[in-house]
Amino acid sequence: MCTGANDPFAGAPPAPSLPGLGEPAPDFLVESTHGPIRLSDYRGRWVVMFSHPADFTPVCTTEFMAFAEIADELKSLNVELLGLSVDSVSAHLAWVRAIKEKMGVEIPFPIIADLEMKVAKLYGMIQPGQSSTAAVRAVFFIDDKGILRGMLYYPLSNGRYMPEIVRLIKAFQTTDAHGVATPANWQPGDKVVVPAPKTAAEMAEREKAGYECKDWYLCFKNL
Length: 223
Fold this sequence. Notes:
about 220 residues; Glutaredoxin; Antioxidant, Horf6, Chain A, domain 2; 2 domains; about 20% strand
């Protein structure tokens, strides 16, 4: 492709390389409210890593209390929570203490201090359209093999919906355990989607399998 004087991309700096779904989650070593953390040390467990814009802010405070509420359920699913913002460890510790004293909620998971925004930039948490100095509300789902399985991004102004975070973890784990997909609005216990056939033989075989088929490519089953 030729470029000319009117090319809007001419001379533009290359876009940063961000982690992609299905790729290894970039490793890091950071300080946190629970001491030094290396992401690769969590292998064998799932990780939900989430960023927030700043400590001692209204929406972030409600989110941290909400994450604390689902922490035990996630733990039962072999999931660890990791929070992150560009604040210092001292600010994180003071905020956690304030939440416990004023709101009666204890934050049980580590909060990463990312003052130099190394992790935030590595994972695309800094969105200049929102802020160049604060991380947006990003969520990264990393499986027990260290592979990035899902990402959610929210603006600074709107808090996250915790049931969707739990639902996604259960959906990923269902897919892994049974080799199936999950349809729109799927909840645990609902029918799952059987992968579409890749050959004529597979298409004929599924007619005998007892699936609930709407068409040759769309079949459901109970687990």
